[in-house]
């Protein structure tokens, strides 16, 4: 994207064609954890700006934690990014954008807006005397009209929507705030106000009206601004020739955001008309929410509670929502053990982030089988480490996340006997109940990742049951596969929601789960998995080029014959293996170019990965891998590594980034080619592909699903 430099030291984009307006236009996009949507918003802008005159793009980031700023930089490095230190609301972000757009008209956009070609030119053409704000026509992704036009909020209109419903009331001006007549969206004209997903504000309007009221944080701030502007002669104009797709936000599904939307409407009425009028709006809003709350709507329940406990102004968004009596705690039955497994596992990543907002008790794995001599590898070690985990009782392992608790119950992992299974379930259930009572975690949302949790949770009081279907555990070779398969089926049937990370597995079980199934992809810790300037001394001393693997070296996952083949085929290269091994590594002792560094802490893994020239995923071809979605795939890509993998379904989500090989010969050839050409894509391109996949966003998705209306 070419540009010339314009005023205030910001990028400008003079466009040839029609006569340019006399002043530049600044596109201000406020972001907060918007990595999943911002790139497409930016990619649509060149065509949208054609013929609109000199322009500049400013992204104001409200302290995102998901790599939003990295996505912006990789999408268009000429965009100015203003980094704010916290998230104190949309209005504060827009005002920051106004300050960085001196002398410009300003087009304010949500990050999930996709402007159509020529949209900005059409918006600017609609500016005329008496117009301070211009709003485009918004549509859903399927092309249907999004009802974005509004009438001035009144008590009567809120009551009308309560009695008739918003869509029906909107057909009648006095009875509905939202304009719902289709014909109204086909003609240009003045409106009271429009939703703030996309709106052009003239420089004259900004200077005359002043900043947006920041105390609302989210919702009603654009209402207040447009109504205030209209009262001073700067009216809002609707221009359907300017079009945009709006993906839509979380307010309809997030109880917290919906309650903020409802209560801010009351606050707006108070500021405009006084406390007496606000009492009427409060009563009308309560009447609107009560029947829906009674029918079980989580969003309207939150609205009722917020109305009954309403404070003068909402709490800052940057502060995590403090768990209240109605905020559900979470109990997660993990498939891993916090104290000795790699803490990169999805259970840990998701729950530690949920714990920033809710109390969380993570129950370490109760196992799939009892380790037995002759059948289980490292039998004695496994028994001892589980005993050590049980001895830790209940702890808070993360000082900066005080709501995160970890316990290891004493299990009886004998799942072949119905009687012993029932006894073991009662034992674990009693222990978890006792801890929940001490921690004051009644009626939790239960997240089960391991199928043996079914016997425990079916007799355990819970608000909702979510099956985090991260693997097909019945494919685990050491387990009693028929017993575990039966438990999986019971958990699939008895769960309120089933979350999948494997599209293959979700498709195979769709007949059982139907609309209870949801795909929730793995995330990646973007801040953690960055390339490091210095390598650890032990890998730095290993001669390159380095063919590397980090992760558990499990005999039911990793193709050790393939690893030995690589050692043979590449004597000039070093094969670096980092991770705990579940079988003897003596077979590699005869290869001087094989370097097994054993287990390394999670904190050090990115530094070791930085030293790889080729990262490998040498999986076995079995049912477990067929339904897997390895987290390390995104971790490799986040580090910008060139990756070669054996073939399995989920790896085909990255065909332009990862070389996929079928068979040992093809794998060796792919590694050889990658050592020569540096792999598919580039370091930057590989990292860019996974920037939207933060664990924070995945945890928010899980919470919205678990706490939303069924």
Descriptive notes:
Keywords: Transferase. GO terms for molecular function: transferase activity. Pfam families: Glyco_trans_1_4 (PF13692), Glycos_transf_2 (PF00535). This protein has 710 residues and is an alpha/beta fold. The protein folds into four domains: 25-147 and 185-246, Alpha-Beta Complex (Spore Coat Polysaccharide Biosynthesis Protein SpsA, Chain A); 255-309; 330-519, Rossmann fold, CATH 3.40.50.2000; 537-691, Rossmann fold, CATH 3.40.50.2000. It has 27 helices and 27 strands. Strands 3, 4, 5, 6, 7, 8, 10, 12 and 13 form a nine-stranded mixed beta sheet that branches. It has an eight-stranded mixed beta sheet with strand order 16-17-15-14-18-19-20-21, with helices on both faces. Strands 24-23-22-25-26-27 form a six-stranded parallel beta sheet, with helices on both faces. Strand 19, helix 17 (481-494) and strand 20 form a beta-alpha-beta unit. Helix 6 (155-164) packs parallel to helix 11 (275-294) and helix 10 (255-273) runs parallel beside helix 12. The longest helix is centred in the middle third of the chain and has 22 residues, at 418-439.
């Amino acid at each position: 994207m070419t540009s010339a430099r314009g005023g205030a030291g910001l990028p400008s984009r003079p466009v040839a064609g029609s006569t340019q307006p006399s002043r530049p236009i600044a596109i201000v996009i406020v972001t907060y954890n918007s990595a999943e949507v911002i790139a497409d918003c930016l990619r649509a802008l060149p065509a949208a700006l054609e013929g609109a005159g000199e322009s500049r793009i400013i992204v104001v980031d409200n302290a995102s934690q998901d790599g939003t700023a990295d996505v912006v930089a990789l999408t268009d490095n000429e965009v100015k990014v203003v980094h704010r230190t916290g998230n104190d609301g949309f209005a504060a972000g827009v005002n920051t954008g106004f300050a960085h757009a001196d002398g410009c008209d300003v087009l304010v956009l949500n990050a999930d807006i996709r402007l159509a070609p020529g949209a900005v030119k059409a918006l600017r053409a609609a500016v005329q005397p008496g117009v301070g704000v211009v709003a485009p026509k918004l549509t859903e992704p399927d092309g249907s009209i999004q009802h974005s036009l509004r009438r001035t909020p009144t008590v009567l209109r809120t009551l009308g929507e309560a009695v008739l419903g918003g869509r029906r009331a909107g057909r009648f001006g006095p009875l509905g705030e939202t304009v719902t007549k289709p014909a109204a969206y086909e003609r240009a004209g003045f409106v009271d106000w429009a939703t703030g997903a996309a709106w052009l504000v003239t420089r004259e309007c900004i200077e005359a009206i002043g900043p947006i009221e920041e105390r609302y944080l989210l919702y009603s701030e654009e209402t207040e601004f447009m109504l205030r502007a209209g009262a001073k002669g700067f009216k809002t104009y609707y221009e359907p020739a300017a079009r945009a797709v709006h993906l839509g936000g979380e307010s309809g599904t997030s109880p917290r955001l919906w309650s903020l939307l409802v209560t801010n409407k009351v606050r707006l009425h108070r500021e405009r008309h006084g406390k007496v009028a606000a009492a009427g709006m409060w009563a009308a809003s309560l009447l609107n929410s009560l029947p829906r709350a009674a029918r079980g709507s989580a969003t309207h329940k939150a609205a009722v509670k917020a109305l009954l406990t309403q404070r003068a102004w909402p709490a800052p968004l940057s502060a995590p929502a403090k768990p209240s009596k109605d905020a559900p705690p979470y109990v997660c039955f993990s498939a891993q053990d916090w104290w000795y497994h790699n803490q990169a596992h999805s259970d840990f990543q998701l729950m530690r982030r949920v714990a920033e907002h809710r109390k969380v008790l993570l129950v370490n794995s109760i196992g799939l089988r009892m380790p037995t001599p002759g059948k289980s590898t490292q039998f004695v070690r496994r028994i001892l480490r589980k005993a050590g985990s049980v001895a830790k009782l209940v702890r808070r392992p993360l000082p900066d996340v005080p709501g995160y608790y970890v316990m290891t119950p004493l299990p009886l992992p004998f799942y072949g006997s119905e009687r012993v299974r029932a006894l073991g379930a009662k034992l674990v259930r009693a222990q978890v109940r006792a801890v929940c009572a001490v921690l004051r975690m009644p009626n939790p949302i239960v997240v089960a990742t391991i199928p043996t949790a079914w016997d425990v949770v079916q007799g355990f009081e819970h608000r909702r049951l979510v099956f985090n279907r991260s693997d097909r555990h019945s494919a685990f070779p050491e387990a009693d596969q028929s017993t575990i398969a039966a438990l999986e089926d019971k958990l699939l049937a008895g769960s309120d929601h089933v979350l999948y990370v494997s599209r293959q597995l979700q498709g195979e079980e769709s007949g059982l789960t139907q609309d209870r199934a949801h795909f929730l992809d793995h995330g990646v810790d973007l801040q953690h998995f960055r390339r490091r300037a210095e390598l650890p001394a032990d890998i730095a001393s290993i001669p390159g080029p380095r063919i590397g693997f980090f992760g558990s070296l499990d005999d039911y996952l990793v193709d050790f014959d393939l690893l030995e083949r690589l050692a043979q085929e590449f004597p000039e290269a070093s094969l670096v293996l980092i991770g705990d091994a579940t079988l003897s590594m003596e077979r590699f002792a005869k290869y001087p170019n094989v370097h097994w560094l054993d287990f390394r802490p999670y904190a050090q893994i990115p530094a070791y990965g930085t030293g790889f020239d080729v990262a490998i995923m040498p999986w076995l071809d079995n049912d477990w891998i067929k339904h897997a979605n390895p987290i390390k795939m995104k971790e490799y890509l986040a580090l910008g590594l060139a990756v070669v993998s054996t073939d399995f379904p989920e790896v085909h989500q990255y065909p332009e980034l990862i070389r996929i090989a079928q068979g040992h010969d093809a794998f060796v050839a792919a590694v050889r080619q990658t050592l020569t050409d540096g792999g598919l894509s580039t370091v930057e391109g590989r990292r860019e592909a996974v920037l939207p996949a933060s664990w924070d966003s995945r945890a928010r998705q899980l919470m919205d699903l678990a706490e939303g209306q069924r």
